[in-house]
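hiii so um. not sure if this is the right channel but i have a protein structure encoded as tokens and i wanna go backwards to a sequence. like what aa goes where. can anyone help
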């Protein structure tokens, strides 16, 4: 049977709250009681098996992840469809606010982007099936549990998905350090919008860049002319939120 691991207090707590199917939870013998007690109580309420184990077993199960003595075995992450993301906007009577990640490969970046996407009210994130980070235990941990709430769709062809979003009236905005237009106060974020965030090293691919309706950049004042992908994405997401709140 396929299974996935969710590690860390926040990630496991949000997985329980969101209704994710969890088969078993492991608690390290040395875990701090104040961290694990609420998780144990909720798991018992849901009838989920809890097992107390040596911390080393958890270290081996999720190597390299700060699990805080809590690891859950869950059903595989359920990816959304693009239509689900559009429907999420419709159901709230809001203009779509979507992120398109063009080959973001670092799971920590994906997790950070999902966390900010949840905080700023984005309706979903779209990633390509190839050459892209997928939702793993590392992503879930970095997202502080936001991976349980922000729909993520995986698509075979990001360029075709952009065409489909345009047919739905979505304005596609690419972030690019060579763009002429600044991200702040340009008025493109109040309507239906999809933000394109490029690869950590190469930025957006040529075809994706050409399909954008407009390119924007973050102003740079220092010696280094680029930001980490998840930080840049966060700044732009908050500009979308600020623009929409200012409009009322």
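sure thing!! here u go:
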């Amino acid at each position: 049977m396929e299974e996935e691991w969710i590690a860390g207090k926040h990630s496991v707590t949000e997985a329980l709250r969101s209704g994710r199917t969890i088969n078993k939870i492991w608690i390290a013998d040395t875990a701090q009681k104040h961290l694990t007690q609420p998780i144990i109580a909720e798991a018992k309420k849901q009838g989920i098996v809890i097992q107390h184990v040596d911390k080393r077993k958890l270290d081996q199960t999720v190597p390299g992840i700060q699990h805080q003595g809590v690891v859950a075995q869950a059903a595989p992450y359920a990816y959304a469809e693009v239509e689900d993301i559009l429907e999420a906007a419709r159901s709230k009577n809001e203009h779509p606010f979507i992120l398109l990640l063009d080959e973001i490969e670092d799971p920590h970046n994906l997790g950070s982007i999902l966390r900010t996407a949840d905080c700023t009210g984005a309706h979903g994130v779209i990633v390509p099936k190839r050459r892209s980070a997928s939702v793993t235990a590392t992503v879930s941990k970095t997202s502080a549990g936001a991976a349980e709430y922000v729909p993520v769709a995986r698509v075979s062809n990001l360029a075709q998905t952009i065409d489909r979003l345009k047919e739905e009236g979505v304005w596609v905005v690419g972030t690019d350090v060579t763009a002429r237009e600044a991200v702040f106060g340009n008025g493109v974020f109040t309507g239906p919008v999809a933000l394109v965030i490029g690869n950590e090293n190469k930025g957006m691919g040529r075809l994706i860049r050409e399909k954008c309706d407009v390119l924007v950049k973050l102003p740079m004042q220092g010696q280094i002319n680029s930001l980490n992908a998840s930080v840049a994405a966060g700044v732009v997401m908050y500009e979308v939120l600020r623009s929409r709140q200012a409009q009322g």
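oh and The chain has two domains: 4-74, 82-246.
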